Fold these 3 entries.
Entry 1:
Amino acid sequence: MGHLVITRKQYADGFEYIEVCNDAARAKIALQGAHLFHYERRDALPLLWVSGASAFKEGEAIRGGVPLCWPWFGRHMSDPSLPQHGFARTAMFECFDVREDANGSTLCFRLCSTPQTLQQFPYAFELHYRVHIGVTLRMELQTYNTGDAPFEVTQALHTYIALSDIGNIHVNGLEGKPYLDALTQELRFQNGAIRIDQEVDRIYYEVDEAIEVVDAARRICIESGGSASAVVWNPWIAKCARMSAMEPEGYKTMLCVESANACDDARVIAPGHSHTLRALICTTH
Ligand code: BG6
């Protein structure tokens, strides 16, 4: 890659992020949560949706971009007082390496277990997150078990895709797949492409091919690895109105398609081993 500029920046209250600008794309990643909240290929519109009401504030997850849900997805199984989607998205990561190759730049982030994390998740771990900013966006979340007991994780790369309008889109790649409807707790099967005209909150299983969001002027293709589940979520009108950091009309221009290890797709990691959840996203016109 010819040109690469990496700048550490911060908002007025000290919320820090890294801006990456190379020949292929521009991106912004907050140190809190290693949270990618902007990715824009040079010849394309921004890929990721971010709420205009999102606070860039310590302790609050950014509403948009790609929050990391880890080490559990959704509500904690046994303790409802613990944060939804785990603690990684509001934890401070360290950026410990930046690599360049012919296709772009890869930033490597790390989060390690501490006495505080052990109170919520009683296992020793190292979580490594590699974000590749190029013509494609690649994310790899690798969980190492550095302790002496096996542990289980559920997780997601909770990608908020920016849309022209929710009424314009459909989603391919999940036809015929079983899904848990999180609104009714029913197990159903996907009939044809997904179109959204109401609240949708689903965990798809047996996901084994790329998922494609077809918008009016572009197609967004999400290929996952180390994952057999995917979450498709849009809060629609009523939930949007009650959610934090959401504008009333926010639901119209976003759809979450999340590469996941959710529910039955939980992964057990043995001591000394690791598991990597991946997502590769590309857009075509
Ligand atoms: C999705 C869940 O992954 O995340 C939804 O399936 C949830 O049920 C959504 O509402 C947003 O969660 P949060 O914690 O960021 O408001």
Entry 2:
Amino acid sequence: MKDGEFIKNIKLKLDRPVVLVGMMGSGKSHLGQQLALELGVRFYDSDTIIEKKAGCAIAEIFSRDGEPKFREVEKNTILELLGGGPCVVATGGGAVMNPETMEEIKKRAVSIWLCAGIETLLARTAKNANRPLLKESSPETVLRELLAKREAIYAKADMRIDSSDSAQAQSVPAMIKSLSDFLNTANLCSP
Ligand code: S3P
């Protein structure tokens, strides 16, 4: 099958959001926008929505209100997006660590884990200073520790796609094929 046929099949069968999970720097926002464009659906980035609501950057929310408050707002923002029908949602890297958020993603969305090696994550996150968790100590140590804690949760996503630099050009076509195959075989309950 060609990409166009996979896309047609997805458009026919997709009745819920496609949620991208994975580490900071895994390409959720960048690849998510491209995927949404291909599927002709809206794209949402939970971090961007939170920043708009708060009127300031994520780093400022962390320092002003603390991480627990950010996590609460993050959970509510994602749960709201899950009720909105077919779209693509990029979540913040730590969002799935809230068990309720991951449970709802599993029930009401199709989920894709974008997975990249530490070198790729390090290089990409070094370009952007708006990641408070990477400011405190060595970004490499933090990323390795977070990945070790989170990997088993990311692995609960319905699909896993390589988004390392070496694979990135193929990540969107791979997501499209994988989504189409998943929707052909999955026995989804109403969202
Ligand atoms: C975080 C990831 C960030 C943002 C916040 C915390 C995390 O989003 O939500 O800085 O805990 O991994 P990205 O994954 O989009 O960078």
Entry 3:
Amino acid sequence: MRRLPFDPVAPLLPLPSLLEAVLHLLDDGIAVLGKDGRIVFANEEMERALCLEGTALVGAIGSEALVEFFPDASSLRPNKHAAGVPARRVERMTAAGPRVYEVSVEGLAQGALVVRAKDISSRVEAERLARSQLAENESFRVVACLMAEERDVRQVLELLSAQAAAQCEGDGATVIQIEGERGRAVASVGLLTPLRGREFLMGGSLAESVIRNRTSVAITDFLTQYPDHPWSDAAREVGAGPVVLAPLFAHDSLMGIVTVVRERGREAFADPEIRRIRALADQAALALWKSRLLDEAEAANQAKDEFIAVISHELRTPLAAVAGYEELLAEEILGPLNEEQHNAVDRMRWSTKLLTSIIEEILTFSRLETGEVHLNAESTSVRALLSSAGAVVEPLATARGLAFSINAPNEKIPLTTDADVVRRVLVNLGSNAAKFTQRGGVELNGMRVGSRVCLAVRDSGIGIAEVDLRRIFDAFTQVHTGTARPYGGTGLGLHTAHRLARLVGGELTVESTPDRGSTFSLLLPLTLPAAGLADRGSTQR
Ligand code: ADP
């Protein structure tokens, strides 16, 4: 309870007319009760709040006159306890419409009370609006997220038509996709469900102006306002009254039109509802645009994969023939060669081998992309794997004047894996090691590490800067780029090796210091995980 700092009532009862006049000017309803519980004064606002305009409240028993505010008469008993009643909210229907009052009681000296009724209707309405706006925004946010996440165009269209109707209390909605002179209802709900799949003439329709002006159109009663519209038969058939049409535009591309309707006789769509339909249409248009881009990107990617697969396959056949003829020449089956001719044939064979390995790399990449790499588990050992890879890597290293060694423990470390896949990874790492090393050597090391084995390819070459380490496993990535780069290659080797390593349940990591060298480590489980085999089923490679 708050006490007034002075005691205006006791000496002034009854209130002088000047004070009364001032109290009548207040926006709050004021009633003063004497200690006998009778009303000594009530201003006009209090009379309005009690719907007792013009009634002489003075002299009335407070608890009776103010019963609408204080159903419990004890609240107005002139004692300290009564004066401590907390402020309460009371809703009333007054001559000026529904009102909400915050009613409080303050105690004065000598047991008098002041009852105050503050009209808080606008504040309450503002709070209600803010709450409903918040709820609306939240549901809108959820729908926008759903649309943004949806990948399938059909689902986006279904979601749009359902939400366009739901968010604006529509009885039906449809999305029309424009196909030249005509539009087709591709997704419909509620009242407009029978129109699904139907075609509409665009010429002379409201859709034309919606598209031309890129803005929505709202109609109070379609058939009254547009009795001869090309779509009026359909509107009559479904009983559409109020209609809103909004265009689906994203980045200058027209994706269609969304139409929301209410049954004939229902009230027209309000401005906030039209705004919501427009906002929903904008969100949906972006989602459709994204889906379209993704579809195009996917189609382009598929075309690229197919092209790579076909072209590398087509190159492999003639290359095999070239390699065969080179073999015949080198073996002098087609006639004797002098030294110069032998050298030329050797260079041809070297280039053919390089070309073959590049084509094989591209083929493996394309098979990985299309999920066509199949595994074949077999028993092997660390030393056997290192030796078979070493058979390819050693000549590459020694040809560049580099030392080469294989280091593995004497005891046999058996493992079950796809030996061909592991060999391919090691050959790839070993070829890189030889390619990027000018001095020193290349080592293939093997050891057991707990329940796994580690096959490591170490070189003393140019190394890789830390900033480049993060991206070297990405497809088509090379540290040195441009046509003048000092090293050849496709930029696919490490990417493919990394993916093949994962395929056999392994992990490929790298440690490197510029100008000191690099170590690529392949950690493999002792047994090929069942998932690797089960996923791919066959032994085809
Ligand atoms: P590329 O066919 O170009 O060799 P890779 O995918 O095998 O493609 O390697 C990608 C890049 O990683 C190489 O271009 C090179 O810059 C770097 N790189 C790979 N291995 C080594 C290595 N042992 N030493 C230094 N750099 C390497």
